[in-house]
Structures are given as C-alpha cells and as structure tokens.
Amino acid sequence: MTLTVDAGCEFGDGVSCASDGAGGPAQFFLGAMAYHRLWFGERLALTAGAGAINNPGRYLVLLPPINGATATTGSPYFTANPGDPFSAWDSSLTLDIMPDQHITFRFEGNHRSASVPYFAGRGGLTPPGGNVPPPSAPVDGWAPDLRKHETRVTVALLLKL
Fold this sequence. Notes:
- By secondary structure, the protein is mainly β.
- 0% of the residues lie in helices and 45% in strands.
- It has no helices and 8 strands.
- The strands form 2 sheets. It has a 6-stranded antiparallel beta sheet, with no helix packed on it.
- It starts with a strand and ends with a strand.
C-alpha cells in the first residue's frame, strides 16, 4: 500500500504562497494519492487507488496540447495565469493476470474529474486539417472539445523479452 502527499508553493513577482492577498493570488499545490495492491497467489493482482489535487494558479498543471500548444507557447484555450483555479481527482481499478514471468494481461478502469474543462472529448484537441501555427494563436471558427470528466477502460498486453 502507498500513500503520497505533496505540497508546495511559489511567491514573489505578483503571486502569494498560501492565500490571495496583497502579494497577489495564491500559487500553491496540495495533492495526495493512495494505492493498494492485493495479490491472489503469484499470478493475479488487483490494484485500487485514488488521488486528488488542488492547484490554484495552475503552475503545476500540464497544459493540454491543444493545437500543438506547449508550456512555452501557452494556449488561449486553457490558461495558466496566476489565480486560475484548478482542482481534480481520480480513481482507478486495475486487474493484472500474469500467466508467467514474461506476460501480463492488464485490465484497467479509470475515472478523472476536474473543476474546469481539461480532458479531451470526442471532438479532440486538434483543429480540422491538423495543427495550425502558431500554437499560441486561436483558430478561427474552432474550439477544442474539453470536458470536466473522463472515464476510460484500458486493455493491455505487456511482454517482457
């Protein structure tokens, strides 16, 4: 079983560590996650876990690659300005079937939620015809399909050669 707690902040240049105030909006990160793996013999394992973060100012939130955007270019579709709120949580359940030491069949369900639209919806993050330079500019008549929630089921085959 694992439990991880992370905390941090930044201050100066118009941002404050702990709370909105005279120094500027809060720029802190607080996150926690816990996972527990249960073994059933040597060939079957079940892992359950969950986590949550609160990150006002989004200074540690990964920028979605909308229209090819990066942390350097930024994006008009998902900002990371001081004071922009972001909180999220996730949970997962994973079943591993390991018939021998070289093969793992993995079945995983995951649900994630955020306080703002963040996850790619069916319409995607790429404009029709592909990414349009520059990545920091809006594309006329188009917007990414961002959602507040995402549920995924993943099936994987892992081979160790």
